[in-house]
Amino acid sequence: MKLNQLTFTRFIAAILIVFFHFGNNTILASSSITSPIVKQANLGVSYFFILSGFVMMIAYSHKKLDFKQYYLNRFARIFPAYFFSLLLILLYQIIHHFPINWRAFLLNIFAIQAWFPGYATSFNFTGWSLSIEVFFYLCFPIFLHYFYQRFHKKIILISIILVWTVTQLFFHYFLHTFYKSDSSFSHDLLFYFPCMHLSSFLVGNVTGIFYLYVVEKKGHSDFYQLLLFFLLVLLYLLLKYPPPVNFHNGLLAILFVPIILSLSLVEKSMPILTSKFSVFLGEISYGIYILQYPVVVYSPAIFKRVGIPDGFYSYLLCLCIISALSYFFLEQPLRRFISNGFRWNNLPKGNTKKTFG
């Protein structure tokens, strides 16, 4: 099952996160209309986590999981571009004679930096979310075989809602009692520690179950397009006039879940989301996300050499081009190579394209 309209939303989320990190001086960041979105675009990471849980359930719920192939596919999905980003940062530090924190580098190489407060955003700072994603990938087969396929759907739903609720209560309680500052141990523990985000992935899983057994059977309808519009307006209003809560650790699942479900059912009524170009943008979105920092440190020298004015939009165009090149010449070939058991011979064609999760 392919839900290409969801693939494009990855691009939107990734671009907004780039604006959040490096586009603070742009018109979008200063406008009273768009600034609530740009200045809180880091919430797109929670959307990634929920969407990842959703599409993983869609992809694997009806299959007998081959553990070896599953882990090869997951490794192939994220590590080529991830390792490339780390090597770019390491090379940059060597060229400029910056002191290298080898402990941080090793933690990043094994994608476990988010487990160690103080190191979560070390080296390539966006890699903390990939460290969490690896944790999700490791846990998913366990949940699939020992929970989702053994218990009644109502028990699964109630259990995950309970886990999500407890996580939110824990997060907000300690945010107001234990939290000290953005650069403290408490910040990394509450905002980056993998277990704090597990409920978002599980919510995505149960959303996938709900889609497969309830929503999909109702078929497609123009109603879902209207519902999607209403939900997006509601999301915007929440960002513009936020209540006294923190949305960072998955609280916006209350809107992200119905948005994902609505998007899953508007393929025919919103063909722009499923066009080849839109899907292509969604496919390169991972590169846009993970390479945003390496490109920003290299781009001034590149622009100076080719005579292009240095600025955010030049950087953004450069990032998209490099992400596209990475997708075609690094990610796709290595995905096929790794998924084929680290063998170049007899590579299955197309078996790693449009891989969800």
UniProtKB/TrEMBL annotation:
Listed Pfam families: Acyl_transf_3
Enzyme class (EC, first level): transferase
An annotated Gene Ontology molecular function: acyltransferase activity
Keywords: Acyltransferase, Membrane, Transferase, Transmembrane, Transmembrane helix
Record-annotated Acyltransferase domain positions: 6-329
Name of the protein this chain belongs to: Acyltransferase
Regions that span the bilayer: 45-63, 75-95, 125-148, 155-179, 191-214, 223-241, 247-266, 273-292, 312-330
Cited InterPro entries: Acyl_transf_3_dom, Acyltransferase_3
E.C. numbers: 2.3.-.-
